[in-house]
Design a protein that fits this description.
This protein is an all-alpha fold. 62% of the residues lie in helices and 0% in strands.
Length: 213
């Protein structure tokens, strides 16, 4: 159950913020989703040597990792930085003026919009924008197209060259970790080092599979 009429959300949120997470709920944040997805990407790559189709799941997880990490890095202290501009302004106005009802819409930009915003202006916590080369941007765009093809099957047969997939995943992993560095203060002690090692493992898996082709 997600919620019902009697759910005391204020009490639940206060409990989570105090580190006393309710046992009958899972705690979801963009950071948690990004980290879980990075771990799943690495696991799927490890298993892909025996089951090549697992590369499709690795792609989906890599895409979700970057998307969630973009959302986390853009959110900022007011948790509005990843919203479409109109919604962001409406919430900002509510917080600053204290008038009217707070918009309950939690939409965030689509992947391309998140990426463009992260690259176009300094992020709140680091005061620097996300910097990607043109080649890295092309590869992340490819990741979006691949993920869309896997996530939304069409009534057709198609194939994806394995090398075409393997070229994308290390860039996605590195980008996700770079974005999580922006919110390092939201992570557990030592967790960022583990994520950097995880990105390196993903790159190693891809290199080994490339050599085996």
């Amino acid at each position: 159950m997600i919620k019902n009429e009697e759910t005391d959300w204020a009490a639940i949120l206060a409990s989570v913020e105090n580190g006393d997470e309710p046992q009958d709920y899972i705690h979801i944040t963009p950071e948690i989703v990004a980290i879980f997805s990075l771990k799943d990407c690495e696991e799927q790559l490890r298993r892909a040597s025996d089951e090549k189709l697992r590369l499709a799941q690795a792609m989906k997880s890599a895409h979700l990792a970057v998307q969630a990490a973009l959302t986390a890095a853009l959110a900022g202290s007011m948790n509005i930085g990843a919203h479409p501009e109109n919604l962001r302004i409406r919430k900002l106005t509510h917080y600053q003026d204290g008038t009217g009802e707070r918009p309950d819409d939690d939409r965030v930009l689509a992947f391309k919009g998140l990426l463009e915003r992260a690259m176009s202006a300094p992020l709140e916590w680091t005061h620097e924008p996300l910097i990607l080369s043109e080649h890295e941007q092309v590869l992340l765009e490819r990741l979006c197209l691949l993920r869309d093809g896997i996530e939304h099957p069409k009534q057709s047969h198609w194939g994806i060259e394995i090398a075409y997939i393997l070229e994308v995943l290390p860039v996605a992993a590195r980008t996700a970790v770079t974005l999580l560095e922006v919110v390092f203060h939201h992570l557990e002690p030592g967790e960022l080092d583990q994520l950097q090692q995880l990105a390196a493992q993903i790159e190693t898996h891809c290199e080994k599979m490339q050599e085996a082709l």
